[in-house]
Structure formats: C-alpha cells, structure tokens
Amino acid sequence: xxELYYAEDDPNIAGMVKAYLERKNxxxxxxxxxxxxxxxxxxxxxxxxxxxxxxPDGRGDxxxxxxxxxxxxxxxxxxxxxxDSADIVSGFESGADDYVVKPFALEVLYSRVQALLRxxxxxxxxxxxxxxxxxxxxxxxxTCGSEEVSLSAAEYQVLMCLMRNKGRIVTREKLLEQVWxxxxxxxxxxxxxxxxxxxxDKLHQPACLxxxxxxxxxxxxxxxxx
Length: 226
Known about the structure:
Elements: E1 2-7, H1 11-23, E2 26-31, H2 34-43, E3 48-52, E4 54-55, E5 58-59, H3 60-68, E6 76-80, H4 85-94, E7 98-101, H5 106-120, E8 127-130, E9 133-136, E10 141-144, E11 147-149, H6 153-164, E12 170-171, H7 172-180, H8 189-202, E13 209-212, E14 216-219
Parallel strand pairs: 1-2, 1-3, 3-6, 6-7
Antiparallel strand pairs: 4-5, 8-9, 9-10, 10-11, 12-14, 13-14
Helix pairs in contact: 3-4, 6-7, 6-8
C-alpha cells in the first residue's frame, strides 16, 4: 500500500483526508508538527509528503528545504490556506512539486496525489534511512545529517547491508560473505572490524550503529532530530 506522511495540525482536516485517502488504498500517517515529520522521515520514507504550509513550529518551506538536503526526488505537495503567490513561489523555490489551495475537494487532492505519484514513481525504495544517515542508492550517495560522506566501496557495502536489515542483527559471517566473498576477495575477520571502525568515524560515531558482541552489528532507529 502506498504510504503518505501528512503534516497537519488541524485534527478535523487531517481526519477527513486520512479517511478519504485510505478508502483509496493510500495509507496516511499524520503528524502535528514539523519536528514529528523530521523524526518520522529519519526512520522510514513514505511515497510522498503532504505538507500544510503553516505549522505550530514553523513554515512548510523550511521543511521542504530540509527534505531536499537528503531526499531530492521525494514528492512533496504543500497545502496553503489561500492562493498567495508569495507562498506558492516560496514553496516551489524550497523544493515542493505541487500545491493545493484550502479549502479543497478531497477528489481534487486525490487526483493531484495520483498524478504526482505517476510522474515520480515510488522513490522511497531509492533511499535507506536510519538515525539521520541516508543512502541514495541510485546516486550511491551517503549523507549524515546534511553532510555528504565519502565512503570506500567496502564501507558503502557494509553500510548498505546493515541499513537493508535495519532492526535485525547482521552477523560478521554474513557481512564477510556478502561484502568480500561474493567478489572473490577472501579476507580475515580483522578486515571487517577495521572497516566498521572507519565507517563509524566517517559517520561521526552514530548511536544507531550497534555492536552485538561476538555476533555482529545492528542498525536501529534512535530518537534523532536534525
């Protein structure tokens, strides 16, 4: 099922949108502040973000810019109370893909969502995220917060394996097999330890990368805010 994140502080509007879109087989997760949206995005990416322009803790254009720092292709539709040209210009300049003026018909919003999804495809599978670390698999780009991080091939492959198995322990044997043995490069166990140490250093010792002593490693979501 397609999932959307909806930033909206009015529970009545949020409830109507959620009920309507979920009847159309679109899951809607509602967040009442921009900070909640940031935290949710750092843990898992949806297919699209619906963003109310005026939120209790800030404006939508700031969140758009923040999103574009890590997820350039993630579709964003912003919702504005009026067709204010300044808001619309600011929205597009900050990275939004489309806008809908309140009050809107639910059918209109759904058609805009469907049109944008058709144009963009489901880009959420392009990204892996955990604890403020993002991997753009299409561009082979890694960011930590807003910082682009340069990794060696082995470091990148280790991180990708851990991110794809987020929440689960990845044994040292599995990492050695998938990162090195699959390429015909037979190395000793110390090579993995050194690679993970360098990876941690480059990612500024992320709390989300856990060592499971004598077994392996695990990536897990932490309470992170950017």
